[in-house]
Amino acid sequence: MPVSSKTHTGKNLMVKYAFAFCTIIAGMALNHLGIGSTDFIFGSVGNWLIYIGALTALLATVSRFHPKEKIVDERMEKIGYRAYRISAIAFLLLAFSIMIADGISPIGMPYHLFMSYLICFYLIVYAVSYKWVEQQN
Fold it and tell me: Is the pTM of this model over 0.85?
C-alpha cells in the first residue's frame, strides 16, 4: 500500500504566518475604524480577529519547533473523503430545512450565533462520520 508522508514545509509555515499577520492587521483596522458590534465575547470583531491571529501565529510557532511527520495511507485518505461527503450532504440537508423553516416562521437569532452553531454542527457531523466510516472499514 503506497504511503505518502506529509510534513510542514517552509512555504506552508510562511502561509500560516502570513494569515496570522493579515488577521491581526484586519482586526487592528476594524478596531481603529470602530467597526464591529459589542455582542461578541471579546467586545468587538476586531478584538476577535486579533485573538485569532495571535493564536494562529502561536500554533504555527509550536508546529515549527515540534514538527511531526504524518504518515497518511490511501485508506485514511479514502475515509477522510467519505466523511467529508457525508458531512457536506448533511450540511446541505440542514441548510435546505432551515430555508423551509425560515419561510414558515422567521428565525430571530443573531447571525454570528447562528453561524457558530452551523459550523459546530458541521464539525461534529464530520467527526462522527469519520469515526463511523473508520469502523466500517
Answer: no
